[in-house]
Hints:
This protein is mainly α. It has helices at 5-9, 21-54, 60-98, 101-135, 143-155, 158-173, 178-200, 210-234, 250-284, 289-324, 328-356, 358-364, 369-383, 386-401, 405-430, 435-459. It has one domain (20-464).
Amino acid sequence: MTPTAPALLRHETPPPIADTNTAxxxxxxxxxxxxxAENVLHMMVGLNDTYxxxxxxxxxxxxxxxxxTITYFLWFMGLIVGSVGTxxxxxxxxxxxxxxxxxxxxxCGQSMAMALILGVVMGAAMYLAAGxxxxxxxxxxxxxxxxxxxxxxxxxxxxxxxxxxxxxxCLRGDGDTLSPAIIMIIVDAINMLCSxxxxxxxWGLPVMGFNGIALGTIIAYVAGGVLQFLLLLRxxxxxxxxxxxxxxxxxTLKRLFRIGIPAGxxxxxxxxxxxxxIRVINGIxxxxxxxxxxxxxxxxxxxxxxxxxxxxxAAATMVGISLGMKSPxxxxxxxxxxxxxxxxxMTLFGILFITVGHYPAAWLSPDNPQIAELTTRCLRITxxxxxxxxxxxxxxxxxxxxxxxxxxxVISLATVIVLxxxxxxxxxxxxxxGLAAIWVVLATxxxxxxxxxxxxxxxxxxxxxxx
Length: 467
């Protein structure tokens, strides 16, 4: 049956009418391209903040290190709320595949309620503990007070940030990646514009310097949370947020937690390990050259992995819908097509990192050749493993879409603790081998994690997961 015109105008992914590769490819692109556009602009926000910080007079190195460290806290907050978002996407996509609208509405309401509660609790905790937490980062020079100010300002916005991210997860599970992408593009545009204007005093605004970067982020997150909440209230033909659905429904919450707790545990361990990595790097180099080069490398590498994440998101939705339709074969073909496109793009980016990575590295730190040269070396290292990194992003996304979050958690725990964290401690803190050697450890761990995720997908146990 051909979808109606109103459905198409509302950006609803058409119901699959054929299982040909062309039809699946079309649906994957419809899901992935809006997310990719969103990810690209989000990456530009990170580059924008890094550029502004690295060009502040008299405190560029400290400001750049502070922005880089706060990125880890933003990542941590995203992981916490992502545990709920993973469950929401998996359950709503299954409901979409089986045409169970009341379940989709229930999951949407319970997920948003959890987002608001978590946002208030985590925001209060982060504000109160900001001082000791920044003290644990090992930042040197004048970076700690800058990071402390940013973190406390950020804590106020967490309910809005969490609502924004959970709403996106719900809409993507329902097959709508365009609407949340448009809102997130608006949010990122506000972020960049406000950060530039407030940092440098455009249009008669005060010159706020580093605090202007932070305030631009805060304004954007508040706007994003409000817009995403209103979008869910407006609803879609197959899912809508009803206010009475915010009241606890224990059976739905139990199903969310069954998927979300392993995902949250995985994310937390990943974050702790990476926080340990940045702590080791900050401790090795109090001049902030290594921390700056480390974060510059991550910013530039995000050009690649944001592409993989877009197709990982599409694979998660396609797998959930396919399993709701009782078609594991469709889920398998969709995932391999997602890897063919996303993994191919990431492999190409890896080649570019190896061959011309020195150009963007110099652009980010034009006044410090030492940082630019170290960033170039790290980019060449990570460029060698982008195909394996893509395997982890896309195949683990497919596994999460099936609700197989426990095995993904086990894979991450094993590689992150045994290789990433322990390896960086040995190479960096004990042997004092420098940032390039640390990135060899990080790259090796990502490649191994990709192989293990691929192995689990091929083994096929995810097809029998009940959510």
